[in-house]
Amino acid sequence: MQQNDQMAYDRGSTIFSPDGRLYQVEYAREAVKRGSVSIGIKTAEGVVLVAEKRVSSDLLVSETIEKIYTVDDHLAVAASGHVADARQLVEFARRESQRNQYMYEEPLETDTLAKALGDHIQQYTQYGGTRPFGCALLVAGMTRDGPALIESEPSGAIIGYKAAGIGEGRADVEDALEEGYDEGMSIDEGLELAVSVLVDRDDTTLEATEASVVEEDGVRSVTSQELHEYAPEDYDESDEETEE
Amino acid sequence: MQQNDQMAYDRGSTIFSPDGRLYQVEYAREAVKRGSVSIGIKTAEGVVLVAEKRVSSDLLVSETIEKIYTVDDHLAVAASGHVADARQLVEFARRESQRNQYMYEEPLETDTLAKALGDHIQQYTQYGGTRPFGCALLVAGMTRDGPALIESEPSGAIIGYKAAGIGEGRADVEDALEEGYDEGMSIDEGLELAVSVLVDRDDTTLEATEASVVEEDGVRSVTSQELHEYAPEDYDESDEETEE
Amino acid sequence: MQQNDQMAYDRGSTIFSPDGRLYQVEYAREAVKRGSVSIGIKTAEGVVLVAEKRVSSDLLVSETIEKIYTVDDHLAVAASGHVADARQLVEFARRESQRNQYMYEEPLETDTLAKALGDHIQQYTQYGGTRPFGCALLVAGMTRDGPALIESEPSGAIIGYKAAGIGEGRADVEDALEEGYDEGMSIDEGLELAVSVLVDRDDTTLEATEASVVEEDGVRSVTSQELHEYAPEDYDESDEETEE
Amino acid sequence: MQQNDQMAYDRGSTIFSPDGRLYQVEYAREAVKRGSVSIGIKTAEGVVLVAEKRVSSDLLVSETIEKIYTVDDHLAVAASGHVADARQLVEFARRESQRNQYMYEEPLETDTLAKALGDHIQQYTQYGGTRPFGCALLVAGMTRDGPALIESEPSGAIIGYKAAGIGEGRADVEDALEEGYDEGMSIDEGLELAVSVLVDRDDTTLEATEASVVEEDGVRSVTSQELHEYAPEDYDESDEETEE
Amino acid sequence: MQQNDQMAYDRGSTIFSPDGRLYQVEYAREAVKRGSVSIGIKTAEGVVLVAEKRVSSDLLVSETIEKIYTVDDHLAVAASGHVADARQLVEFARRESQRNQYMYEEPLETDTLAKALGDHIQQYTQYGGTRPFGCALLVAGMTRDGPALIESEPSGAIIGYKAAGIGEGRADVEDALEEGYDEGMSIDEGLELAVSVLVDRDDTTLEATEASVVEEDGVRSVTSQELHEYAPEDYDESDEETEE
Amino acid sequence: MQQNDQMAYDRGSTIFSPDGRLYQVEYAREAVKRGSVSIGIKTAEGVVLVAEKRVSSDLLVSETIEKIYTVDDHLAVAASGHVADARQLVEFARRESQRNQYMYEEPLETDTLAKALGDHIQQYTQYGGTRPFGCALLVAGMTRDGPALIESEPSGAIIGYKAAGIGEGRADVEDALEEGYDEGMSIDEGLELAVSVLVDRDDTTLEATEASVVEEDGVRSVTSQELHEYAPEDYDESDEETEE
Amino acid sequence: MQQNDQMAYDRGSTIFSPDGRLYQVEYAREAVKRGSVSIGIKTAEGVVLVAEKRVSSDLLVSETIEKIYTVDDHLAVAASGHVADARQLVEFARRESQRNQYMYEEPLETDTLAKALGDHIQQYTQYGGTRPFGCALLVAGMTRDGPALIESEPSGAIIGYKAAGIGEGRADVEDALEEGYDEGMSIDEGLELAVSVLVDRDDTTLEATEASVVEEDGVRSVTSQELHEYAPEDYDESDEETEE
């Protein structure tokens, strides 16, 4: 389809193009690709979430940039894309969790949350007067069947992964994850894999990185200082200083 | 009608083209054709549903891609097209089933569900501010008159079939089904036919396949391992490894 | 009026063209013409409804294609055009019938139903945010004054007929009906006339035909097997086998 | 104003053109002109309404085409233009009449009804999301001051007439009425005048004509058979047979 | 501003043009100018309203064309422009008057009514989904301070006048009023002035004229017969007969 | 930015142009500039408001043109721009004042009213379906801290001034005010300054001028006769007669 | 992307461009850049807010231009961009603070307020019928963990800073802040830094500057007179007089 024709169908969530595509959803995926990368790795012991932050100024307090959010004591999500959109979805997730706790007096299952998120996101792709959410989420939780890692994306589709990357350079990240992944890996090995994938990228330093682990005992935050322990041996901390 | 003219009538559910067509509905059918194939076969003993999944990465947990959904203990549906749209319809179906059980204290009839789905889908083709559903469903159930298989599609039309395929390559699938179908076939023979139709296609492996059987005893899930038993003798499992 | 000018006025139910036409209603009539034909004949004893079905595949269960619907025990309608639209109108008719029974404890009169349908259909031609219904109906009933046959169409107009055809090839069908019609004919003669008009058309076989009779005793369905008894003597059943 | 400029202002009820016109209202008047003619004559004894019908097929039951409607036992209206639109206005009129009877326990005055109709019609010319009504009405009633005949048209304007024609060929009809009208004429003379005006037109036969009289005793329907008594002497009934 | 540019800003009440104009309001003023003229004259004894009617046919009952409306026993309005729009405003005025009487148990002041009308009219110039009112009103009343004459126009502005004309040829009418007006004139002199201004215009006859006087004793209607007494001596009644 | 590009962003309150401007708000400011001028001067003793009126006809009652409105006994506003819009804001202000009196039993502070007005005005610049208010106001009041003069304008911004002009020729008026202003001036000196600024303009006569003073004792109206006392010595009253 | 293509996607908050951008949000950021600059500096003792005002006339009362707003006794915000928009957000913040005080009987945390503001702002970027807020805020507060400074901007994103500038010339301001900033600086040193950054700019004088300090004891306003004490030694007050 030519450029002019595509432009006839890409300015509303509520229309299909002649070949059955929803362009606004596809453009929202582009918004995700413009976001900094987030990585999730499901290990034998739990799920690892590591996210890169874009720190544009030395005066910025990087801790205030949230890429990983705790939903409840056994659920966390990492986001890429429009941060204000992601925050809306995180709040939706937290309300769902509280509602579930209140109504059923038991914690929300990871896949139940992912489906609720997906349904919520889908509504924004079918009705007029709104745009799709411009962000993807990695939902990490401990379930009866062990650790679970599920991605939600702007169409409302939800898919489980052993390891996944969302945001800028997703393809390269997933290649690196496929190479290093092992189902039996420990959380420490998961952190090592995630960190090595991140630092391999030219523009990432561990200073501007956020990490959490969802394990049997709940959600645990990993500081960027702690992350250094998981860095490859040849990782040169002094590089961080020369960053511009 | 020329390209330019068609473009004048294809950007809203709420208008007819001069030749009486609803282009947005036709484009939604294109969205169905872009989806991976699902097959339904009505046998003498029950209905077989087999669906192919698109597994884009080794790290993806293929079990989390749902193509076949249990609606209640005697009803299941297989979907092709936009997965988040399909999930909405499945949830609608489940609510209808629960409402029916609650109000009439008896299970929902297959054709009653199909009509309710069709009516729900039709609304999205007549009123503004929304788009049609970009998915088709195969509704499978056991009724007083035996097994039933009904397709719903984006216009809201519902049609019963002895055997049907929806999604990518529907025409080829239906040709193969017509050739191999026999009304008196058993469920096992139905599974064999479905599997043979699927593996004939270049890009399908049984690993990425989901199946369910709706029979007298209810809905029964068939694992991809079990499906191998129904594969043609010349089916080479090693092919699966070399898939890219 | 030239093509370009027509296109300025034909994309909304809620505007008139400079010559006072409602193009969306006219296009909805085109949708009716694209549908398979339905025939109604008012005889001295009751009303005959016969409808052709489009059976696109041998695996399709033609009984599940509904063209004739029973509204209550003395009222039936045959439809042509968008099937999901027609189903909406049939459900509207059934609700009207139940409401009438409940409120007045007497059956709904045929012309009262036709007017209610026409009013409902008219609303979709005057207000924005929706499209007209893309179907026509033949409403058949027994009234105090004997049998009645009324057509409703996308503008909301309703007109009584002695015999009428809606859908594809309406003009030819009506010519044939005018030639063969007699007000004093019996139901059997009405069925004969309807069947002979249908089988005269190249692409019709009695296998893919649905029929009902509305008579003193209520609505009675006529199977496609029974319809063969009404076929002209030179009708060759073997033709049905060679259909493609 | 040139064609292109007019087209900039004629596609919404809610905008004025630069010269202060409401094109959609003017186009709705064109819809009236496309309708078959209705004639009203106010005589000394009552009001005569005669309306021509378009009978497109011998199988059509012309009695089911309504052009003249009884609103209550002293009020009737004749319509030209979109029949489904006219039916809406007639129902509005009947509800007004019932409401008036219920609230004030006295019959609705003719001019009160005409104003209520005009106000209702005006709303459809000022607010968005709808189109004007594509029909005109002749409202006939007996009042304290004697017979009354009032026309309502798509702008919502209402004007009283001694004799009036609406629909196709209105100008010629009004010329003929002006020539033959006399305020002191009896109802029979009024019917004679109306019939002579109608049969003077090439395409009219009394068979396809509907008539009512609103007089002291209430509304009385005049059959097309009775109308023949009022036909001019040179009216040749055999012409009706040769009509095509 | 060029034609093309103006057209970019003149199709919605809710937008300003770059030079700060509301074109839809200005076009509604054009609609007023297309209406037949109405004249108001404030005299020492009361207010005179005289309005010309357009009588397009001898069969039209000119009394049914209302240009002057009594609001309550001390308030009347004359209108020019879209008659159905004017009727809406008159009904608004009557409701305001009744509400005032009911709530405060005293008659509505002329300027209070004019402001309420102006506010009502202004709403239609600021919000989308509607068009301005296409009419102007002359509001005439007796107040504590004596007679009052206020004009409301499509922007919602309200201005008091000693004498004013609205509708077609307003400029000429106002020139003639300025020349003949005297603040101390009696009602009879006011009627004489209004009549002389009207009959000076080529196309006006007193037969098609409506008049009312608002004076100490209330609103009094002046018949077209009575108006002849106020005509200039050289006014030739026979002219009326030759009118076409 | 070129003309064509500007036109892409200037037809809705709810969009920004690429350079961050709200064109509809800027066009509403043009509407203010088209209005006749209003002047406010804050003196040591109170605030002076003087406004020019456009009197287009000798028959117009200039007192009925309101440019200065009393909000409550210690608050007044002068307006320039669309008069019907201004009246809406004045009514809003009066309701706010009454509400404040009712709820808090104390008079509304000048800056509280100005902020409430600004917030009300801002809403009309952010939401669709409406246009900004096409008027500016000078709010004058006595506060605990002495006299206050605040301008509100179509963006909703509110700014305090020692002396200000709104409407046509604002720039020249403000230059003249800057030259003649002194913070310690008396109310009489303020009126002198305002009058001298007004009569310096070619088209202004004191006959068509309205004035009010807000001082310790409340709001006091100044007649145009009284204003002559404040006119410069060389002001020639006879000029007023020759005005056209 | 070319100019023409960008223009296809930049006129509604509710659509993404093909590369995943929300142009209306980006244009709202341009509106912020058009606003006068505001500076926030987090010191060891509290947060300093200093804002430049645009004083266009000597008659303008610069104190009435608000750029810094007290939200409650421990929270303040500085704004740049559309002032009426900023006022809306400040009122939202004040309502949030009161609601929090009322519900939880404790003061609102700085980051809780910033998130509430960000969520509120995000809504205006996802739903149709509105535009984004055309302003950015610097939220300053004292928290359990000491002073906090958070920026909210038109996308709804919120980010913490040690020191930040918003509005015109932001880039230069941030360069100067990075150079002079020290985490351990006192409030006095923070004021000195802010003032020196401001006066370095050609068009700024301390007369037109507003400042507040949020410290342990609450929010404290700093007059422009006091600000002079923090000016660099070479700052020449006489420059202020020559400003144009």
From TrEMBL, chains A, B, C, D, E, F, G:
<dbReference type="InterPro" id="IPR019982">
    <property type="entry name" value="Proteasome_asu_arc"/>
</dbReference>
<comment type="function">
    <text>Component of the proteasome core, a large protease complex with broad specificity involved in protein degradation.</text>
</comment>
<feature type="compositionally biased region" description="Acidic residues">
    <location>
        <begin position="232"/>
        <end position="244"/>
    </location>
</feature>
<dbReference type="InterPro" id="IPR001353">
    <property type="entry name" value="Proteasome_sua/b"/>
</dbReference>
<dbReference type="InterPro" id="IPR000426">
    <property type="entry name" value="Proteasome_asu_N"/>
</dbReference>
<dbReference type="GO" id="GO:0006511">
    <property type="term" value="P:ubiquitin-dependent protein catabolic process"/>
</dbReference>
<keyword id="KW-0963">Cytoplasm</keyword>
<dbReference type="Pfam" id="PF10584">
    <property type="entry name" value="Proteasome_A_N"/>
</dbReference>
<feature type="region of interest" description="Disordered">
    <location>
        <begin position="208"/>
        <end position="244"/>
    </location>
</feature>
<feature type="domain" description="Proteasome alpha-type subunits">
    <location>
        <begin position="9"/>
        <end position="31"/>
    </location>
</feature>
<comment type="subunit">
    <text>The 20S proteasome core is composed of 14 alpha and 14 beta subunits that assemble into four stacked heptameric rings, resulting in a barrel-shaped structure. The two inner rings, each composed of seven catalytic beta subunits, are sandwiched by two outer rings, each composed of seven alpha subunits. The catalytic chamber with the active sites is on the inside of the barrel. Has a gated structure, the ends of the cylinder being occluded by the N-termini of the alpha-subunits. Is capped at one or both ends by the proteasome regulatory ATPase, PAN.</text>
</comment>
<dbReference type="GO" id="GO:0019773">
    <property type="term" value="C:proteasome core complex, alpha-subunit complex"/>
</dbReference>
<dbReference type="InterPro" id="IPR050115">
    <property type="entry name" value="Proteasome_alpha"/>
</dbReference>
<dbReference type="GO" id="GO:0010498">
    <property type="term" value="P:proteasomal protein catabolic process"/>
</dbReference>
<comment type="subunit">
    <text>The 20S proteasome core is composed of 14 alpha and 14 beta subunits that assemble into four stacked heptameric rings, resulting in a barrel-shaped structure. The two inner rings, each composed of seven catalytic beta subunits, are sandwiched by two outer rings, each composed of seven alpha subunits. H.volcanii produces at least 2 types of 20S proteasomes: an alpha1-beta proteasome and a proteasome containing all three subunits (alpha1, alpha2, and beta) that appears to be asymmetrical with homo-oligomeric alpha1 and alpha2 rings positioned on separate ends.</text>
</comment>
<dbReference type="GO" id="GO:0004298">
    <property type="term" value="F:threonine-type endopeptidase activity"/>
</dbReference>
<dbReference type="InterPro" id="IPR023332">
    <property type="entry name" value="Proteasome_alpha-type"/>
</dbReference>
<comment type="similarity">
    <text>Belongs to the peptidase T1A family.</text>
</comment>
<dbReference type="GO" id="GO:0005737">
    <property type="term" value="C:cytoplasm"/>
</dbReference>
<keyword id="KW-0378">Hydrolase</keyword>
<keyword id="KW-0647">Proteasome</keyword>
<dbReference type="Pfam" id="PF00227">
    <property type="entry name" value="Proteasome"/>
</dbReference>
<protein>
    <recommendedName>
        <fullName>Proteasome subunit alpha</fullName>
    </recommendedName>
</protein>
<dbReference type="InterPro" id="IPR029055">
    <property type="entry name" value="Ntn_hydrolases_N"/>
</dbReference>
